[in-house]
Amino acid sequence: MDIEVRTENGRVPVTVVHVHGNLDSASYEDFQSKAEALIAGGAHHMLIDLAHVSHVSSAGFRAFHTLFNKLRAIHLDDNLS
After folding, report:
1. How far apart (Å, rounded) are the C-alpha atoms in residues 1 and 10?
2. pTM listed for this prediction
């Protein structure tokens, strides 16, 4: 699995994560750790491009869920400020 990251600037900066290959039990940890590092580095809006992913296993979906919860917590904190 290969991961490319770009930031697109619009109304808000969006971190675009392009994933190439399968997202499964062999690769989800690498994907999740890279995405979590982006969030820790300040990414508040993230788009995951799966155009070049042929298979996502339950482990990949679990990684999406974990990342969604981390981003949602950031946005809840932003709204409370």
Report:
1. 28
2. 0.89
